[in-house]
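Async update (no meeting this week)

Hi team, since we skipped the sync, here's where things stand on the single-chain job. The sequence we agreed to prioritize is pasted below, unchanged from the tracker. I ran it this morning and attached the output directly underneath so nobody has to dig for it. Comments welcome in thread, and please keep replies under the output.
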Amino acid sequence: MHVFVTGGTGQTGPAVVAELVAAGHTVTGLARSDAAAARLESLSATPHRGSLDDLDSLRRGAESADGVLHMAYGGDFADPDALIRRDCAAIEALGQALAGSGKPLVSTSGTLVMRPGRVAAEQDAPDPASAAAFRIPGEQSCLGFADQGVRASVVRLAPTVHGPGDHGFIPALIAAARRTGVSAYIGDGANRWPAVHRFDAASLFRLALEKAPAGTVLHGVGESAVTIKSIAEQVAQMLDIPTASLTPAQAAEHLGNPFLARFFSLDVPVSSVHTQKLLGWTPIHATLLEDLKTGDYFTPQASARAEKIWFKHHDT
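Output:
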């Protein structure tokens, strides 16, 4: 299959591109810079110059492919309406190029669109009041093409996609712990957080392209419910520092960002049982706590990345 990929040079994208190439697929990736083009070439993919705002470029990429994987997402998170418009316009351009073809269109969302406080399944409706409600219109836009002759599906990724070179939520926790000398959690720390290893996520994206039925919602979750306290305790052990329970206000100061504090206070367990059964997907790579023990989160390079993350969030 010739796959057109957006977001192929992001945090998860290179692993996905490598997975597709290793499985015998040909990959063309959207590249908005020379650095992105070079990264794609290093992964044996062909760069396609353009951006999410260049809808003609997106259409050309989709029209020349046997399937499309849309992972790119970005913009000003202080303006969620603009994020929604940009994402939906990109999905519409990609989907229209595939209409009536029966080809796959796989778009990306996140499990934080689900209602907190209970284990959410793939068949459950997303929550308009959720922390990631701005991703819901993109889901709906993609799934709407299932009625237009497109094998459209959505992969909701766990908020923590861990693995080598992670620069997401977990490094922000580690950066704050290094900075303050305390590894913190909010309240009793019993709130649950889903996670998936990047390589397991990559295999899920490949399977979705190859065989997900039209209209399918998939959960990219290897672990349904890792407690925030257990994460904080593992970080504390690795840094040889104490743990501490904080109030939400204290956590906002500790992390340097109220946005991060809100996310880490959420209880958002998610099941992927249906996804695993439907596609034969079995997460096999390290768990999050295992990765915190044996991965690269506490190397000098990771420490430098974490410091940059801390300063970025602290100045927000």
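Quick observations from my side:
The chain is about 45% helix and 20% strand.
Residues 310-316 have pLDDT under 50 and may be disordered.
Reply here if anything looks off.
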